Amino acid sequence: MEEGDLIVLASDGLFNNMYKSAELTEILKNFKVKTNLRRGRRDLLFSLLHFQYSDHASLEDMAKTIVERSYSHSIDTSCMSPFAKQGSSALSWEFQGGKLDDITVLLAAITNYDTT
Q1: Could you report the per-residue pLDDT of 1-60, keeping only the tens digit for each?
Q2: What stretches of the chain show up as alpha helix (H) in DSSP?
Q3: CA of residue 82 relative to chain centroid, distance
Q4: Is this model's pTM higher than 0.85 or not?
């Protein structure tokens, strides 16, 4: 990790309703957070996108915006959410809509702490 990195931790309620690469990047760009195409580790437990945080944006405002977008998808019966897409392919029939679920988002910015 480097100074300026932004860590996004979230429950499955977020990722059941929102595509992490496209929508998360779009929201963070609106807060002037730089995105880097470099991707971090990917496995079954998590995937990490690399974001550069500047202190011009409020972490609280960003987290609220991310949760609000995911919640709006969760109650939209016509959206093609990640949950709907996976359900459609698993069940071999068209499924639309989001998934009502708890949505938790935690953002942390890596900063240099100077003790002098």
Answers
A1: 777 778 888 999 998 998 877 788 888 888 777 766 445 444 333 344 556 666 656 888
A2: 12-15, 25-30, 59-74, 82-91
A3: 12
A4: no
22-61 residues labelled b (16+ CB within 10 A) or e (exposed): ebbbebbeebebebeeeeeeeeeeeeebebbbeeebebee
Beta bridge partners of residue 6, listed in sequence order: 109
Structural domain count of the chain:
1
- Does residue 31 fall inside a structural domain? yes
Residue 1 maps to a domain: no
Q: What pLDDT, on a 0 to 100 scale, did the predictor assign at position 72?
A: 94
Whether the CA torsion 11, 16, 21, 22 is positive or negative: it is negative
Is 28 domain-assigned? yes
pLDDT of 25 reads 80
In contact, 63 and 10? CB cutoff 8 Å: no
Confirm whether 55 is domain-assigned.
yes
